[in-house]
């Protein structure tokens, strides 16, 4: 078997230690270790200090796995935990119990959220532990900075007060270590969010603690761990969706609604161009006034996908939308996303006795390859997500 030679420079970028595997040159040892599946990397870190340093020091190990075609693509999902934990705080209780009604009062509990991870290649699920017994903010945005090897959870609702928060949590994915990032300048939830370029995350819109739709926008530099304010949008947009578009690091905010028109989604959007530090409006790009774009759209720097269960071709949209027909009629209980070249859809049970269904399908240039295939979901991971992102490891 011929083993491809790895340059000493590249191997040196991956690790700063010697004797990874006794008797093997460091370059060859790295070539062996980057081929170990992700599910075993946690155990690898316990073998020796050199291996731990190799895996957790920075994102170079992941970049080497991508270079040799061994990286695995994980889908990160912010979703309610199921079932609620006993410590969940009751927020409403039905005390209208009568002698004729012997049933127990219904108690509505504040949900708790978790960060779940689905490995499509291995068909495995796990949940990332959160530090110091803290709780993940409800309805927070999940965004990935691939080159930095980081997953960010931004904004949402404080689990105790149920008020919008400015919090930022950063997960160093290689080392699986959490840290708090610098908070946003403004509390917000249900806002547009996207990573743009290798180090920046843009946020805009959403609503404040009075349910007022926000126009404000800001950008986070993950390397400097600091937020900067950018000009506000021309319209307040609650429940809007964010994307990075093109290769020129522009940020698009799709649809949303104003304070006085809650639930009536706008047909337009706005695009921020950092080159001019200004927003421009784009008309007639969302054709579903009764449907939120959240959970119905997904994309990256290339084409954007719109998932629908009605016949409506968006291929001529100015945003280069591609319409993807959902595998079944869904109503509003659906969450669709993107996992590399695969479209992934979770559909809620249409009856209380039915669970959620997850399906995926490969796509290329807007065309499906084959048919939708079912994905087995463990019961603990079967709630519809709020936000998602994918990362190579």
Automatic annotation (TrEMBL):
Residues 89-103 have a biased composition (Basic and acidic residues). CDD domains: F-box_AtAFR-like. This is F-box/kelch-repeat protein At2g44130-like. Residues 24-64 form the F-box domain. Residues 84-104 are annotated as: Disordered. The gene is LOC104784925. PANTHER family: F-BOX DOMAIN-CONTAINING PROTEIN, OS02G0208700 PROTEIN. InterPro entries: F-box-like_dom_sf, F-box_dom, Kelch-typ_b-propeller, Kelch_1, KMD1-4. SUPFAM superfamilies: F-box domain, Kelch motif.
